[in-house]
Amino acid sequence: MTRAPSIKTPLPGPRAKAVIDRDKAVVSPSYTRGYPLVIARGEGSAVEDVDGNVFLDCAAGIAVNSTGHSHPDVVKAITDQAQKFLHMSGTDFYYEPQVRLAEEMAAITPIAGGVRTFFGNSGTEAVEACLKLSRYATGRSNLIAFLGGFHGRTMGSLALTSSKAIQRRGFGPLMAGVYHAPYADCYRCPLGLSSTDCAAECLDFVEHQIFVHLVSPDEVAAVVVEPIQGEGGYVVAPEQFLQRLRELTKPHGILLVADEVQSGMGRSGKMFAIEYSSVEPDMMAIAKGIASGLPLGVAVARGGLMAWPPGAHASTFGGNPVSCAAALATIKLLKDTLVANAADVGAHLMNGLRSLIDKHPLIGDVRGRGLMVGVELVRDRRTKERATMERDAVVNAAFNRGLLILGAGKNAVRFSPPLVLTREEADTAVRIFDESLTEVETARR
Ligand code: PLP
Hints:
Layout: H1 14-26, E1 39-43, E2 46-49, E3 54-57, H2 60-63, H3 72-84, H4 96-108, E4 115-120, H5 123-138, E5 142-146, H6 155-160, E6 178-181, H7 204-214, E7 220-225, E8 228-229, E9 235-236, H8 239-249, E10 255-259, E11 283-286, E12 297-302, H9 321-354, E13 363-369, E14 372-380, E15 385-386, H10 388-400, E16 403-404, E17 406-408, E18 412-415, H11 423-444
Parallel strand pairs: 3-16, 5-6, 5-7, 7-10, 10-11
Antiparallel strand pairs: 1-2, 2-3, 4-12, 8-9, 11-12, 13-14, 14-15, 14-18, 17-18
Helix pairs in contact: 3-9, 4-9, 9-11, 10-11
Pyridoxal-5'-phosphate binds next to helix 5.
């Protein structure tokens, strides 16, 4: 494939436009397509559209293609498995790839003592499994989640999701028994503290408000938290936030569920983002990058917790053998080189983006871990007024120059490339982002 980026037609090109016109007539209008990319094929960190334009991919679907587009090892694992059998419901029968993947999950997740894995097809199903198991294992019904969090869109996970009101609007009443607390958004700390001088005082809200005024802690089944908020704007919780959360939950027998659907599988520069805090959760929801793009979502739990009887929970397609094969190949690549690459190239990307701060007044904050990097755009650095329209304009300007990035939250841009991204490609992404910011800042004057 031609080196990315290489833009040959006005965007969208004629073939892309034809597909989009057909899509408009028949596909659900609930999807949020920011710009008109119609992919024809991908390779590594490059994506070619149906008109032959080549883009540098810093979106990876939405943080999914962990090993890059169509990594040969993953494609081989998929085709080898596809030639043997495509499906034999793991809920009613046995097959080795599912067992092997559960063994791998027990080995790579930061939970001690005989981890078990439940298999679904998506992030939301992984979260649903954690919610159901939390209730089942504790006999309690209430849950605590965080404002700005995103946990999925099915009726259980949606009750936890509080990223954007549009995601909940018109769907109520949602599942009862869910309480929301402020997340550790250190750039906008309501207490005026900085991440280095705080003791996670934002969690006082859980301890002194929710537990005192709303629900007794002995009736709370679980706290569900993203170690790095994804959809909410790539907001990194400081280590003390997760540590205090563990200290708050443990004495009350409240389970700690880490939603690592977006931050997991190497993206953060460690296999799981919660490892930065050394906190051991009781359960984890994992999806997106786990199978390099094939549908798979898993819930893992301390073995003793996952003690529900046959029939309690299952999914026909969950843990599809082809997805399991893709996941096993993905995990090998992550362990061999890609987690380390995410840490190395991620630091390089972050440095590059930070070097733009002095030049671009639109940049309010650059943050992240590994190849999960967010840039929050503001109209005024002092008031931190959110630059939402400008953010959308920057994302579009980058697209027109051949860089795929996505928005996150109201006014952040996320860089979530395939974990095969090279330092040179990171430099190209920074250069195009720089040009895109200049274009939008110039238009504002
Ligand atoms: N949890 C987190 C942290 C996510 O980022 C997402 C999706 O973006 C989900 C859950 C839901 O995943 P899915 O869209 O696969 O259902």
